[in-house]
Amino acid sequence: MSAPHDSPADPNPAFTWGLSSNMSDIQKAMALLITSFSKYAGKEGDKNTLSKEELKELLQNEFGEMVCKSNDKEAIDRIFRDLDTNRSNSVDFSEFVKLVCCLTQMCHEYFTCKK
Hints:
Layout: H1 13-17, H2 25-40, E1 49-50, H3 52-63, H4 73-83, E2 91-92, H5 93-113
Antiparallel strand pairs: 1-2
Pfam families: S_100
GO molecular function: calcium ion binding; calcium-dependent protein binding; transition metal ion binding
Domain EF-hand: 71-106
């Protein structure tokens, strides 16, 4: 994969890397994670982190009932608290990716155990 070019106008890594048609499935997944995070981060300030409200919107729109019911404030608070490991009162990309990894592992276990 070639290094990203500076393109602040378009945060989409597929565009920035210039590999959209040649990207492997894993590269596409990585680009999608970055793009999805960027779509919600920064609406309330820092474009590199998610506030609790931004995380709530991301969870509702991108994960739906898979993670929690949208009106379950306690569940959202608990997820935010668990993800915010550095106690910055925001969720950075590393912390977000940990959530995605855990959910992916759980889905993998669920589907491989069903066979």
